[in-house]
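Ex. 9. Protein: DUF8017 domain-containing protein.
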Amino acid sequence: MENPYPQPDRPGGLYQPPPFRPPQEPGGRGRSSRKKVVAGICALTALAVTAAATGVALGVRENRAREAAVPPASAADPTKPQVAGWKTVVNPKHGTAFDVPPQWEVLEPTVFSGHTDSKDREKVLIGHTAPAFYKSKWCSIDADGDGQVSDVRLANVGTKGAAGAKNAAEIAEKEAPTWVYAAYTQPDKSAVKTDKPVAYTTRSGVSGSYVKARSTGVPRTNHCAGDGQAVVFGFKNSRGDLVSWDFYGRTGVPGAVDDALIMRVLSTVRLAGDPKEP
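Predicted structure tokens for DUF8017 domain-containing protein:
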């Protein structure tokens, strides 16, 4: 398996997983087929790959019928929230859980949400599963003029695997700037600024490291474009596999998720049994 972590001589040092080829329905071609249900996973799995355009990754045209919010008491979400009134997000594949405020949308664990390369829509730069969205229709735009409107989320959070990483700090260092680049600054890597790793332990005792990254000066090429930030927390699950919790969202706009809330959500990250396919 190809090592998804770049060598030191790769420009920007951004996380670059192997090329991803979204499956197509029989006979499907073009952009529309890449936004359909992921074949071979389950009939209710939505492929949530975001198309990047004009310097900002715009909201994916997801199959909204398959993205109903998952209530905390459902079979897919057996754990109770650590914060009263919040929702719990469980990712069985990685054996992880965390909580989000009640206004957030919790999607099925099999939903994949990510961002593609603005120059190659078949290439996924980064993504995670079992996501939760905040204000999923915060901004809408028809980026390429094809008549299909994309919804831009104000914030997004989820978890992903990190096979090939050496330690938790490396995960955070590589992935945090990649989320910012993929979601907000393409094709400009110089607009991304990254802090150093910080050792951190969640309320449940999960230890690891987190890194904050942000963009500055992203051109307002359209009414949805602008700066954003990411916080990535690397840690190990019960099997000893390195995984990451990933938050990213817009900054400098009304209603943006502030640092205090991001850290409160991060504090609820916990293990949720042994990893298994959902």
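Check your answer against this statement. Residues 168-185 form the longest helix (18 residues).
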